[in-house]
């Protein structure tokens, strides 16, 4: 353990980690407050969740540099539960959701995030960038809920543009301080120094509070409560893991390193369990704050730890200072995050990639914006899977020849599975074929039970016509699973393939 700590300290740029962590912590405040409002709970419920989720996942998570906290995705999921049952039911729902996430990690199911196709990833990233960008426009509303106008609007826009310009051009002059942090400092200095009237963090809500304390959910511990919270817990677990693991994959690509999806699943689950027991609303990975952190140069766990600790210090002792930060500065930071997150290269290749991939990309982006991330990703995966199955279903072929002994050979190539089984069956001329038929699978692969059943049907059909059929180059698994055609298989231990058939044991 000591050696691991020493290794983690070696080569760490603590200045970058500290400044990145502080930038993230400041950006977390209005986000946590806004998501608390969406869920219908006190701002401290969101802030405590951001602290707990950020700290636990920074220390134990599978992706150094990734930031977790209270998120809009989770807020939207739990909002109906809070509205109908009250906030007391929120905490056991978050705890149970965390248990499900730990089970996913313990069973090593996090690896299945690799099945997400690239067009779905691009759609996820682009859709989330649009969501982040779109969400900032709520800050241009007055307390009465109306759009700003006149001088307040022009001042707000001017400060937002100033923050964006600092972030864009400061790195060309110096990289000593992360540009998002400098943007916040410059805009705050102007507003406070010149007494500019513009909305601040304190106008959203007070963030003053104490240390989070351990609570026992004030609900009946019975089957009725379980049935009430179970659907929401499953959604919390699913939405949280999808967003977290996709964010992990994105940061892997940016940093050219590899995180652990299973470890991250366990950390997310533990974070949600502790969040539920400390009065937090739970959460998951935050792509916006994670991008701020990575773009600021952070690559280690320290930035996440510092962000969580700094956030708690804001709540306990620095609330009066943080509440003076102009919302415009944070809006400018998030606008630049959205612009940087969007995969602009995906627009340049729309006419160069398969049309169906473009459809998947656009569908995932649109559904992410109008519905939610989890639904969008599931739809994208289903579309891609169906497309893949169809493409492979029509690829199965059979070369036909007759040898000097009058035996007809069918040389099969292409995958044999549920999608191609019907096409495979149609390749054979049972009535006209000679008395002896050999079906060679040396260039094919039987992928599932549908393929096995297709082989059995071929055997039965030739038997009906009183003809002898022999199957060669089938894997041992295929032979063991065959019901009727097994006696027609010729075993060649030197040349038969060795692979497993996917089936439900």
From TrEMBL:
It is found in: Membrane. SUPFAM superfamilies: SpoIIaa-like. The chain crosses the membrane at residues 21-39, 45-61, 66-83, 89-107, 119-137, 152-170, 177-196, 226-251, 272-292, 304-322, 327-347, 359-390. InterPro entries: Membrane-Transporter-like (IPR052706), SLC26A/SulP_dom (IPR011547), STAS_dom (IPR002645), STAS_dom_sf (IPR036513). It holds the Pfam family Sulfate_transp. CDD domains: STAS_SulP_like_sulfate_transporter (cd07042). It comes from the Bacteria. Residues 410-505 form the STAS domain. Keywords: Membrane, Transmembrane, Transmembrane helix. It is a multi-pass membrane protein. Gene3D superfamilies: STAS domain (3.30.750.24). This is SulP family inorganic anion transporter. It comes from Flammeovirga pectinis.
């Amino acid at each position: 353990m000591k050696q691991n700590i020493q290794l983690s300290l070696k080569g760490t740029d603590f200045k970058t980690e500290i400044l990145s962590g502080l930038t993230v912590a400041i950006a977390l405040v209005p986000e946590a407050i806004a998501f608390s409002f969406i869920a219908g709970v006190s701002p401290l419920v969101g802030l405590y969740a951001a602290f707990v989720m950020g700290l636990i996942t920074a220390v134990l998570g599978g992706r150094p540099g990734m930031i977790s906290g209270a998120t809009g995705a989770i807020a939207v999921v739990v909002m109906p539960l809070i509205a109908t049952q009250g906030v007391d039911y929120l905490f056991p729902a978050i705890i149970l959701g965390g248990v499900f996430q730990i089970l996913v990690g313990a069973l090593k199911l996090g690896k299945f995030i690799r099945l997400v196709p690239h067009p779905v990833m691009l759609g996820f990233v682009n859709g989330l960038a649009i969501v982040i960008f779109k969400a900032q426009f709520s800050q241009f509303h007055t307390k009465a809920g109306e759009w700003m106008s006149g001088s307040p609007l022009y001042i707000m826009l001017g400060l937002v543009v100033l923050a964006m310009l600092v972030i864009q051009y400061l790195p060309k002059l110096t990289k000593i301080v992360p540009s998002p942090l400098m943007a916040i400092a410059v805009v705050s200095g102007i507003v406070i120094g010149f007494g500019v009237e513009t909305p601040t963090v304190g106008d959203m809500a007070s963030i003053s509070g104490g240390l989070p304390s351990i609570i026992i959910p004030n609900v009946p511990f019975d089957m009725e409560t379980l049935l009430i919270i179970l659907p929401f817990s499953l959604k919390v677990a699913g939405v949280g893991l999808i967003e977290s693991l996709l964010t992990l994959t994105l940061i892997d690509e940016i940093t050219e390193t590899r995180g652990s999806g299973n470890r991250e699943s366990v950390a997310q689950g533990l974070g949600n369990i502790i969040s539920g027991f400390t009065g937090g609303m739970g959460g998951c990975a935050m792509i916006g704050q994670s991008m701020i952190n990575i773009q600021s140069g952070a690559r280690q766990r320290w930035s996440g730890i510092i962000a969580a600790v700094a956030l708690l210090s804001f709540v306990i002792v620095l609330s009066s200072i943080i509440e003076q930060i102009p919302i415009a500065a944070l809006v400018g930071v998030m606008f630049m995050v959205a612009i940087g997150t969007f995969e602009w290269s995906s627009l340049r290749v729309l006419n160069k990639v398969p049309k169906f991939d473009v459809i998947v990309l656009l569908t995932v982006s649109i559904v992410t914006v109008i519905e939610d991330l989890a639904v969008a990703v599931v739809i994208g995966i289903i579309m891609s899977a169906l497309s893949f199955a169809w493409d492979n279903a029509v690829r199965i072929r059979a070369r036909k020849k007759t040898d000097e002994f009058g035996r007809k050979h069918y040389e099969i190539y292409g995958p044999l599975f549920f999608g191609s089984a019907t096409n495979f069956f149609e390749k054979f001329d049972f009535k006209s074929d000679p008395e002896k038929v050999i079906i060679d699978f040396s260039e094919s692969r039987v992928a599932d039970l549908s393929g096995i059943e297709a082989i059995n049907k071929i055997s039965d059909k030739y038997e009906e016509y009183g003809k002898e059929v022999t199957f060669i180059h089938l894997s041992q698994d295929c032979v063991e699973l065959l019901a009727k055609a097994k006696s027609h298989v010729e075993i060649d231990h030197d040349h038969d393939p060795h692979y497993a058939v996917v089936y439900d044991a």
